[in-house]
From TrEMBL:
Entry keyword set: Hydrolase
Any one GO molecular-function label of the UniProt entry: hydrolase activity
Species name: Chelatococcus caeni
UniProt superkingdom: Bacteria
Family the entry assigns: Belongs to the carbon-nitrogen hydrolase superfamily. NIT1/NIT2 family.
CDD domains noted in UniProt: nitrilase_3 (cd07581)
Name of this protein: Putative amidohydrolase
Keyword Hydrolase in annotation: yes
PROSITE patterns hit by this protein: CN_HYDROLASE, UPF0012
Residue span(s) of domain CN hydrolase: 11-248
Length: 282
């Protein structure tokens, strides 16, 4: 029997915004501290930025040199800190692919185990950047994860610019979409972040939890947008731990007054074949 939205409890989410250093141990210590503080604040879910193993604005290849496997020392410390806790943690790290490049992997951790992973589909080859030089894209749509009775979908940073993925997650049942990011500064970029996050929430009548890295290169500006496009929590450009409440009743209300998912005329979005396969087929 499905539990109605009116009887489900409000779930608290924590947004752990910080500036990633080039030292993975320092970043692991920051993550463990944020996990402790989020749990103390009553959060069921902690969302952290993208690429939290290491960052150096002067060294674009650091994603290669700092990458660790999912059973590496960084994740071992995160998993150990998670053991015995109901707190769900979502973030992204770079993982070696065994072929000289890496995957950008969004990992979901709870009670000492990795309960979900997603390899970033859309690589940031835009605004003079080329993520694909070092990163290999994934080829699977991320499955939903249940957190505190809510169905949660995941996307990573540049994915936010592609409405098909968010719509697919919503059609699959997502009530919340989580977006760890390292949104790069630039002319108009902060406005893009806010407009896109708001659009993805409003057009899918779901909560959108977007957490950005702050620091010298990236904008921070983490936020939670509710299913009717209202920003209910925000961070600035400095490190912060921000809390917001996800209310199932608000989702039900939005989908009753704005039934875009029920009214849609297009089929469920599907992932295109990889470029190499498409070329070979042609």
């Amino acid at each position: 029997m499905t539990t109605s939205s009116s009887t489900r409890s409000v779930a608290r989410v924590a947004l752990g915004q910080f500036a990633v250093s080039r030292d993975w141990q320092e970043n692991a210590d920051t993550v463990v501290r944020l996990m402790r503080d989020a749990a103390a604040g009553g959060a069921a879910l902690l969302v952290l930025p993208e690429g939290i193993l290491a960052r150096d604005i002067a060294d674009p290849d650091i994603v290669l040199t700092s990458a660790q496997p999912l059973d590496g020392r960084f994740m071992q410390q995160v998993l150990a800190a998670s053991h015995g806790s109901d707190l769900t943690v979502m973030t992204c790290i770079h993982v070696p692919n065994g072929r000289g490049r890496v995957f950008n992997v969004l990992v979901t951790v709870r009670d000492g185990a990795i309960i979900g992973s997603y390899r970033k589909l859309h690589l940031y080859d835009a605004f003079a950047a080329q993520e694909s030089v070092n990163v290999e894209p994934g080829d699977e749509i991320p499955p939903l994860v249940e957190v505190a009775g809510l169905k949660v979908g995941t996307m990573t940073c540049y994915d936010l610019r592609f409405p098909e993925l968010a719509r697919r997650l919503a059609v699959d049942g997502a009530e919340v979409i989580v977006v760890p990011a390292a949104w790069v500064r630039g002319l108009g970029k902060e406005a893009h972040w806010e407009v896109l996050a708001t659009a993805r929430a409003l057009e899918n009548t779901c909560y959108l939890v977007a957490v950005g890295e702050c620091g010298e290169r990236n904008i921070g500006a983490s936020m939670v947008i509710d299913p009717l496009g209202v920003a209910i929590a925000r961070a600035g450009e400095a490190p912060a731990l921000v809390f917001a409440d996800i209310d199932p009743a608000r989702i039900a209300h939005a989908r009753a007054v704005l039934p875009v998912l029920a009214n849609r005329r297009f089929a469920r979005p599907e992932l295109a074949a990889p470029a190499a396969a498409t070329t070979a087929a042609a």
